[in-house]
Structures are given as C-alpha cells and as structure tokens.
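Crash report, auto-generated. Payload:
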Amino acid sequence: MLQHLLEVAIEGILIGGIYALFTLGLNMIYGVLEIINFAHGEFIMLGMYIAFWLFTLTGLHPLLSLAIVFPLLFFAGAAFERVTIEKVIKAHIFIQTVLTFGLLLLLQNLAYFFWSADYRAIRLNFPLISLGSLHISTPRLIGFIGSVVTIIILHFFLTRTKMGTGIRAVDENPIAAELVGINVKKMRMVTFGIGTGLAGVAGVFISLYYYIYPTVGSIFILLAFIIVVLGGMGSFVGSLAGGLIIGELESLSALFVGPQWKEVVAMVVFILILLFKPTGIFGTGGRK
Amino acid sequence: MVRSELLKVKNLDVKYEDVQVLWNVSLEVNEGELVAIIGANGAGKSTLLKTITGLIEPSSGEIVFLKQKLNGLLPHEIVKRGLSLIPERRELFGNLTVYENLLVGGYTVDKEELEDRMKWVYNYFPILKERKNQLARTLSGGEQQMLAIARGLMSKPKLLMLDEPSLGLAPKISNEVFKLVEKLNSEGITILLVEQNVKKTLKIADRAYVLENGKITLEGESKQLAENDTVKKAYLGI
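Recovered output after restart:
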C-alpha cells in the first residue's frame, strides 16, 4: 500500500511539472496582454496532434518534433495576436473573451473536420524505470524533465536577455515600458507566441502518455485556470507551485476518492480558493 | 547667443472624448534651456507632456522635434529620437531590480554604449549603485524619484521632460530634486519641467509658461514672471 501511495505521489509531481509548463504560458499571456486566452488548451491539442502525425507519418520521435512544434505554434500564435487580438487589445473584456473563445471553437472544429473524433495515441515503448521496488512511468518522467528544462530556459530568457527583461517591464507597467522605448505592441505579439509555443511543447510531452482527440484541450485549460487562481495571477512561482499542487491533488484524489472524481476534487479546491484566498498563494491581487 | 530650436509645439488642441483639455497651446524649447510649465492642478500640464511623448494624440496642431514632426509616432519611436519623459508618480517597474529598471531605461541604447551609460548614471546617483540588486518598490520615495530620473536619462535624451518630480516628497528631498534638475541642466541637458511648486521652479528655470484651464495665459523669463502680479497672487501666495 505504501509503495503504491509513493508511486502515485511521484506521478502527481511528474504531471504537475507539465501542468506548470502550460500554465506559465497562459499566465504570461495574461500578465502582458491582460487577456484570457481561452484557446490555450487548443494549442496544447495542436502540439499533441502535430507530434502524433509526425510520428505516425514519418516516424519522427515526439521529442524531436519539439523542434517543429515550438516554432510553428510560436508563429501561429504571434500571427493570430497581430491580426486579431491586437485589434481588440483596448476593447471590453467581453469582446476579448468572445474572440479567444471563438478561436477555441474554431480550432476544435477544424480538428474534428480534418482528424475526426477518433481517439489516437502515440504508441512508443518506453523502458520501465524502477527505483528499487518503485515503478515510475517513463513517459511522464520524460515529460517532467522536459518541462523543467523548458521552464529553466524560459526563466533564463525572461531574466537574462534584453527582450525578456522588456517583456517583464511590459508586464509590470505597459505605459512606462512604452515611455522607455520598448515596442509594447511587438512584446505583446512575441509573448502570445511564446505562450502558445509553450502550450504546444507541453502538448508534445502530454502526448507521450495521454490520448489525443479534438477536445482534449478543455481538460487542460480547466486545470490551467485552477492553477493560475491557486498560484496567483501573473505569478511565475505561483504557476510552478500551483502546477505541482494540482498534479499531486489529481493523483491522490484518483487513488483515494476514485479517478472519475478527480476533476470534481480540483473544482472544489478551485471554489475554496476563490472563497478564502482569491488572490492565490503568490498573487498580489491585481497589479493596477 | 542664439540657441537652436529643439522642440516646437504649434497650436495644439487635445480632447478626451468630447471634452477639450488643451486649447491652441504653443511653446518652444531651445537647446540648453530649462523651461518650466507651471499651473494649478487640472490645468492640463500632464496632458501636454503626454501629448508631446505620443501617449495622447492631439486633435490638431503640430509637434516638431529637431525639425521633424512627431505627430503620429508612438512613444517608443519618439524616445529613440532623443525625447524622454519622466512621468508623474514615477511609474517604476516595482518588481524589477534597480539595475533592471536602468537596463530597461536604456532599451534604445546600443549594447556597447549601455555600460558607459550605466556608469555615468551611477556616478550621478551613487545610492542607486549601492541598491542595484534591490527591487524598485522597496526604495524610499526620494530614492524612487532618483531612480525614475536615472531611468529617464539612460536613453541619452536630448530633451528631458519631468512631470511633477517633487510630488509627494518631503521638503528636504524635494529640494534635492530641484538641485539635481538644475545640475543636469547646467551640464548641458535641455529640460522641460512641469511643476506645481512655482516658487522653486521659477528660481531654477530660464523661462516659463503659465497654463490655466488648458490655455497658455502667460509666458516669459522666470525672473519677470516671478515679479508678475497675477503670478504672485495666484501661485506664489504673495
């Protein structure tokens, strides 16, 4: 029993790392553009499908497909931002919501149209990893390590490069950023691209162990919302901690309450946070 | 000495929605000058500076800087041309370190020049060097104002515009800010200063404009304005 509990706990951390990755993308977009990208889960879905088709049609290993997924979804996201979101950047939140929600429906239905509602999976045989008598899911471990590496690269970009520092400045205060000479419009485009690119990368990692179907993104966007609220809106550390907590919670509740209840448990936690700590663990409660 | 013209604002009208806030405002700043805009709260001083930097679009009128029209340019493009605004209430990047605030202030400066610029600024503000790894929001009010000015200087501006730099500061620190502005000007930086502290401002400025309800009602040498009866009554409390 103890061994099983440990395995479940480890699995929670592993998937939590991947959750943290796609949540960071959503949170960055929110911080810099101040819009909620409801279609974020669909970029995860696209990442999964691209990995699947590259693997199925050309035999390319999903991890190698990252080199295609990130740039492709970066440019797709950046282009979408420039052409549509930029036009409503000062509009009412309702209009912005309709736009990104519309993108969600569009991408889901395109996926149905081109790839049908079939459940698909990448069938790769990974060697089982054992730590003593503990068995660890290799695809999840790979996804976790990949996510950690991606998050470290992202952190390096945001803190050590000129553009990254500029993005953080826009996140803090867009008007002051414009006044020191930062092209805020360009930063919004780049940030949206990075956010969707990260969603795609997370999608590739998830495709190593999860089914792929057109509406798969809706599970993850729900988790991402809960994680953002739990960790705090606009908080980098909050997304990391929130991802791990929700991943752990999902794993443990599947064990103790039953797998069919794991989303219910997550939603209950979501409501409890909203009731008792609406700014989240690391949140400051809105910046302006 | 004939000084060449740096900034010229011609017949500027500005509206927020349907409410007009600036009426036919014209002013000029020549190279090396310290020019002040004084006036009461709500006279439109900040609006004027925001319009010059491109944050607000004028409904009519012209802004010419170094003989080129600025109308229609975005603020980040205007900064590149050598115009820097230190906004009201400082608008620092609170969760960035002092060093990062300065780094971002020099966003338009080449990498090679950035180091030199940083040294130059640290030389002016040794306290910022001491606190370079501190988050900007943890600084005291006076230090934050120094950082805001330092950040504005990072872009090597030909014209530095300051919006109420003494606002909310203790008298002693506010005096330091005025001394600093004077010193920067004496070292060749052209300055356009917006202030409510008329007395101190007229002491350091070469010339000044009086803005009242969105219109320029008086202009002239600071010394003459300080003797002007209307200015004395309305702003100096004499």
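Post-recovery validation: The beta strands of chain B are 5-16, 19-30, 34-38, 60-65, 68-69, 83-86, 159-163, 190-195, 207-212, 215-221.
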